Amino acid sequence: MGVTGPPEPVMDRDEVDRALARLGAEHEAIETSLLALQDHAGRRLLEGAELTGTTKERWSTADASITLLWAYFDAYTDALRSARDIRSRRRWSSREDLVDLTELLRGAGITVAGSTTAAANAPTLTGTGRLSERFSLVALVERMNELYASSLDMVVAADAVWSALPARIDLLAAELQRTRQLAHSVGVRPGEHPAGDDLERITRTLSTLRQQVVSDPLAFWAPTKGSSAPGGGRPDTTTYDREARALEDVRREIDAVLTVRQDAEARLVRLRDVLSRADRTLAEARSARGEVLAKIAASEVPAVSGPPTVLQEQLATAAEYRRHAQWHRLSPLLEALEEKAEDELLRARESLTAVTQPLAVRAELRGRLDAYKAKVARHGLAEDPFLIERYDAARRMLWSAPCDLRVAEEAVLRYQRAAVDLLSPRVPEQGGPTDRRGPHA
Are residues 35 and 103 in the same domain? Predict the structure, then answer.
């Protein structure tokens, strides 16, 4: 960078003193920042790490930028020292001194030479074909601020990822190891149980993830949109979070297997009881079907199936798994069996209900007939010949075998209508009373 523009107006002594004070404060602040960057834990880690990918590329640039920063700072220090030396020659600076100070403090006469390596990677010199640049002090400070911000952003981002993810991955790996041991104790192994396969996959993923995080931390950095502050963003934990959730799912699966080991015998006993009740209900339904066919005429009675042998075979398999401590096989089998056994008991009860439906209809008709007989007796009509005749007809049909339910229901309805007719209040017709009981009265 060369000197551009007309020469600046000569500064007076007060302007020189104020400029030197400001530049001295800037020098102290820059030195403090550079020393902090030099001692930053992230920078030291980057220097000693075997980097790959994005981090390797960005660190090559940042490292060159930090080297240039010190070169710029040395040039800045030399220029400030020279200005202070000129100002300190005499209490009242001469015009020649003020001209020199003006050129030094405001001119672009500061030359900065970079090393070959730094010049090859630094964003300020790459592609220019030059190994040095010329600055004014103001421009030099601006350039140092730019390089410092970009270098610090890279160092802070890498350090944030290294501080967050490897430790969390190690903790999850330790939990994974404990889960693997527990899974092995209950027979959950790769190739034999899906949870065992999941554990193997999580192990491989975590191992690969840790290697990638250590060698290329910036690949796991999510910058904050719109943020210009160095290190604005957060570590990207998407892969870690996914594997942590997967491990939690596996832990729940193993807990279920452990629960099976603890209460397997009680569950097997309950299963045997449910299947036994279903068998007894089906046996009752078969017996009831024979009774219905013998006592009820003209009625369609559904067939009753026998007990399912496949459930008994699966129950025997479950007992075998328990004897051989194959808990990972027993767990899903018990769950399926418990559901199927409940369904079988419900089916048996529905079958019994369907088979005994005609008997229930006959019992309802008997109850209705007796209820109306009792009602008639309370009103003093129990000895009415017409009612006695219709009651006896309905009773014979309901208490004979086989019973035709359709005919019996009609007989009950005839008796019911006759009773209602007698119990209802009468309004005499014009021309005299009329006997409404029929020709048999």
Answer: yes
